[in-house]
Amino acid sequence: MPSFPQYLTAEQENELRRIANAIVAPGKGILAADESTGTIGKRFASIGVENTEENRRCYRELLFTADASVAENISGVILFHETFYQKTKDGTPFVKILKDKGIISGIKVDKGVVPLAGTDGESTTQGLDSLSERCAQYKKDGADFAKWRCVLKIGAHTPTYQAMFENGNVLARYASICQQNGLVPIVEPEVLCDGDHDLETAQKVTEQVLAFTYKALADHHVFLEGTLLKPNMVTAGQSCPKKYTAEQNGKATVVALSRGVPAAVPGITFLSGGQSEEDSTLNLNAINNAPGPKPWALTFSFGRALQASVLKAWQGKKENVKAAQEQLLVRAKANGLAAMGKFQGGQSGKASGESLFVANHSY
Amino acid sequence: MLRQSLEVVCKEDFRKIKIGKHQRSNECVFDCDVTRSACSYTTEGHHTIQICEHKTAIKVRAKVVSRNSCLIICILLNVKLRIARVNMPVFPQYLTPKQEEELRNIANAIVAPGKGILAADESTGSIGKRFAPINVENSEENRRRYRDLLFSTDKSLAENISGVIMFHETFYQKTKDGTPFTKVLQDKGIIPGIKVDKGVVPLAGTEDECTTQGLDGLSERCAQYKKDGAQFAKWRCVLKIQQYTPSYQAMLENANVLARYASICQQNGLVPIVEPEVLPDGEHDLETAQKVTEQVLAFTYKALADHHVYLEGTLLKPNMVTAGMSCTKKFSKEDNARATILALSRTVPPAVPGVTFLSGGQSEEDATQNLNLINAIKGPKPWALTFSFGRALQASVLKVWEGKDENVAKAQAELITRAKANGLAAVGKYQGGLDSAAGGQSLFVAQHAY
User: Fold this and answer.
1) CB contact under 8 A, B380 and A158
2) Is the pTM of this model over 0.90?
3) Which of A132, A324, B50, B158 has its CA 20 to 30 A from that of B272?
4) What is the ipTM, given to two decimal places?
5) What pairing do the DSSP bridges indicate for beta strands B39-40 and B5-6?
């Protein structure tokens, strides 16, 4: 008979499954606070805060020392390498602060996008070198899940077979290495919202990309029950002249996922992309209320859409910390409700309606 | 004077051209396809040319230049003309919404709660093997009589049988009084289906692996079957577990041929039942069977995606996951059910409305109990899980019939018994032990080909 060498022991499978399920527990989702140094600089610039290591530390301390009730809606936080090893003013590692609140720490492990030569602006993502040793160390130091972002673009002739195949494959290699080291891999094949394409096109491209992704995961024996998917919500391009409702987006999203994501995947943690805080929450709510087979949890892994109001309230000033933390609690609660399809709308924050779109976004 | 045929040469790959209002002529805005206009010009200079062959001709101002003894027309870009490039990938329409709805409705009807399929599509050769043990001659009339028996069963059969798959010959046969079988079934509310593949053929250079043929003229055949009453079709591919098989080649090839078949069916209004059967022949254990089934299904659904098959209008007919027939280790039915759900949950997208299991070599009772457990155990199961049984619905029927007219009513009663049992199993409510004439007999045939 054919040979299927063991990929994971039953014990390893159980651990991964348990972590993944905890992350997508009902009413909970992820705070994506893993902006790289360059990217957080862009956020700081908009509120006139200098991009120093201390400021970055201050800002994340603000987030992680929010009231313990934040854990009712935030199950996990994704961190950047620098942040993962930072501490509060009194010397407590961030990872411990989160753990004490019952929040699971995650780590971004990719090393950014690089161009695919011979393509029309397409990319893959690097970071596989010594990934196993890095994952083992992160696991030792308190991480239980990881994240890796790939990027695909909708253009006249893209995404190409090459880009979809390459990104599917690199995601599968990353996922395999994570699981071998006890980290739940969050698989992120983001289809950018740049462009003037309509909703139907976005849906079809997302379906294609997901088909390549899950074929690659199958080929690399990835244990699906111990993974999570972080896809884009299906929306028309940012410059599409036709406008669609949250309900239409929700429906298109569920159709694409039902055609591409096996039921064994425990949960889907959507990225917010360039959407405003309020739109992200409304769209997540619409997704949870859309008809159709939805055997996975449908929740959030938001960066900008959880932090825009926080940053605006903070302005880099100590005296604003409490008010800024309040904003985080408000958005977390709103998204927690949306993750169960129960968001009533209009929980406004200081930046809730602002579009957070950045063209050709890279972290 | 030089007269030449010319082509409109566009520098880039424009899919559509948007024309704005022309200042002088007030022509309207249109989208049109770029086609190549053959026209002849003799002089350089500015001309008005027609750039598409639609009923409403779009006229564009163009400049004709002479270069290398060819006249080239350059579309002028001026303030009044916008040549817009459509900046998104092209997804030509696969099905209209109406076609999608029809396929979706048929698929959902087939897997309605408590219902499943009677696979009565044995080819002439195969049905002969069924007739032999009961000493019935394999004549066309006997084949007609036997299927007449099945389809004339009391209409309560339709409570548990939603559809019947037929072989070509059967599809066009009639009852004694001249009513086509398809009509007999339709009158009971049972949906007729048709086997469209033309059997397995070897893949050269492999270890006894195969693919399935039947794509030639398939579109025309499907259109005809649809006209004549079919609403769904079936195509069986076969994969074997041996030391080095199934190979990448066999999995890729069979998945691809299934996707081509599915695409052609859908274009002709037939719901394709996709059957990538992993044979139970061999000594492999349950875990191996599960892993191979996962691999095969991954290839299958990738191929369906690549060929744009509309999943909501398809059904899957897989093997239940069980260890090889000659495996020394025995596994419980619960183990089988768990392995089956695991394999499916990892590969079959939730958009697929239903899974209609084949029974393979299992006895009638085993097939029913296995189906029941598959429905009863916990796990992610967003599709209907029901049956498409051949042998496991007919073994007792044949045993009781023995080819004799006087046994027809009793034989039909056996069919109703098994149909009811499997209908209960399809909703996880089978209590077990509904006695049948051949209930416990294994129906395994090595290296089964229909």
Assistant:
1) no
2) no
3) B158
4) 0.82
5) antiparallel
